[in-house]
Amino acid sequence: MSWLTEFVRPKIQKLVRRTDVPENLWHKCKSCEQMIFHRDLAKNNHVCQHCGHHMRISAKDRLELLFDGGKYQTIELPNVPVDPLKFRDQKKYTERLKTAQAKATYKDALAVAHGEVGGHATVIAVFDFSFMGGSMGIAVGEGIVAAAELATVQDAALIIVPASGGARMQEGILSLMQMARTTAAIEKVKEKGLPYFVLLTDPTTGGVSASFAMLGDIQIAEPGAQIGFAGRRVIESTIREKLPDDFQTAEYLLEHGMVDMVVSRNELNATFGRLIDMIRRTKPGASVVPIKDAKGKADKPAKSKNLSADK
């Protein structure tokens, strides 16, 4: 009896027992509803291989994607007052912060790193939408100011990648003040003649889109990204008109001149590298070849006429 219970039964149970399958092996595309294996999705940078839909990614994945070889170094952001307004709704603001920090990689909704893009020194500030909807509070404002200052010190290009619902309501007027602070910080970068790019991702709305997110020298957006200020329903109820189906998408803004380029995620590193190179290169990439005439002699540059002498 013991042989049956200790040897035969476990063997049979092992054959018929249902194996638990992890829930995160397959992901469903929100656009085409196709199921995608997690390794295939990660290999394609979380872009649907069936319809090209760009899914949201973490700040860490974004940094690895944009920097050359995925190599970069993050900086420690300045310490800021926690819950300066002692805000409370259904929960205390401090409790919400602790919950978000327990799930996130970084302390707040922004990460700042420096490295190289296209072989050029670059500072990148990336929003993390999973941290309280990427909302902009004092910590995010301080992070963008720190990124701008680091770019000026390193004589580097600055790229900001917003993914935010706007200002953080738990910090009230203090969060709205970050719109002015971040705008002033970007102006210092531009005064030094350094390139400033914005990569608009899904979503970029509210106070973020009304400040630094629309001040880039070149505005780039990911395909299908939602970009705007107020929500679609708010606008429709205000103007009492039906908006187009593609309203506030990256493609719609490109068509109406609000965005310069719509670039696939897999091409972002190469695109930024070319743009930085074109702006920062002060010398020709190759030696100047003189133009020869029919006899094989190099043409000499024409001498400028002295107009005063002719007179």
Short description:
The protein is α/β, with parallel strands linked by helices and 311 residues long. 36% of the residues lie in helices and 13% in strands.
Describe the structure.
With 311 residues, this protein is an alpha/beta fold. The chain is 36% helix and 13% strand. The protein contains eleven helices and nine strands. The chain has helices at residues 2-16, 38-43, 59-66, 93-103, 138-154, 172-191, 206-209, 232-239, 250-255, 268-280, 307-310, and strands at 26-28, 35-37, 72-74, 110-117, 120-127, 157-161, 196-200, 218-221, 261-262. The strands form two sheets. Strands 3-4-5-6-7-8-9 form a seven-stranded mixed β-sheet, sandwiched between helices. Helix 6 links the parallel strand 6 and strand 7.
Tag the structure with descriptive keywords.
single chain, 311 residues, alpha/beta, 7-stranded mixed sheet, two-stranded antiparallel ribbon, 36% helix
Largest beta-sheet characterization: 7 strands, mixed
Structural class: alpha/beta
- Contiguous uncertain segments of 5+ residues: 307-311
Number of helices: 11
Radius of gyration: 26 Å
Q: What fraction of the residues are assigned to beta strands by DSSP?
A: 5-15%
SSE topology sketch:
Blueprint: H1 2-16, E1 26-28, E2 35-37, H2 38-43, H3 59-66, E3 72-74, H4 93-103, E4 110-117, E5 120-127, H5 138-154, E6 157-161, H6 172-191, E7 196-200, H7 206-209, E8 218-221, H8 232-239, H9 250-255, E9 261-262, H10 268-280, H11 307-310
Parallel strand pairs: 5-6, 6-7, 7-8, 8-9
Antiparallel strand pairs: 1-2, 3-4, 4-5
Helix pairs in contact: 5-6
